[in-house]
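task queued by scheduler; priority normal; single chain, no ligands, no partner chains; default sampling; output format set to structure tokens
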Amino acid sequence: MTPASFFPNVSRETLVRLEEYAALLAKWNPVINLVSKSTLPDVWQRHMRDSAQLWPLCPKGARLWVDMGSGGGFPGIVIAILAAELAPEMRVILIESDQRKATFLRTVAQTLGLELRVESQRAEDVPPLGADVVSARALTALSGLLPLAQRHLAENGVAIFPKGQSAAQELTDALELWQFAVTKTPSETDHQAVVLQIRDIARA
């Protein structure tokens, strides 16, 4: 399958940006280990499309998207690329404490001409950002994500967390300490995974 088959509804400029990002990822990965080497041949399904499926869950009119623990840029860089075309008024902030990965993220942003900010520190150390959307992919369990989401979300914001087959157990564990409203959306890339949309986060 071609990259265009994974992203049939975006402009040529957006597709070129995604292809350039994939090339940069392949170039830097042997040095920094941004993603598992075994997943690179399937980068469009495993990482690009898996990240892009979060975009339709973004509330209409959202102005600030914060991605925590961005690593190699999933989903944050993909979201920034899509936002450049589909919501140019949106700001994107990536939080990544690993300095080498943060350097990679800044290099991607500069190379692709993306207007985004990289915070190279831990999410709990970044001053509250008041985001409309907070995301994280493979950062930590839900119980660890919720205090970070609560810190950085605006009052009516939503946290969007893709989760694998451990999602049900993570929800059970999190509800021992937290109260929240959750919506589950089946993953488009893994039949055992879901995407959680979480609002109204408060200590139990």
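post-processing summary
- Residues 3-203 form a domain with the Rossmann fold fold (CATH 3.40.50.150).
- Helices lie at 3-6, 12-32, 43-52, 76-86, 99-112, 142-152, 167-174.
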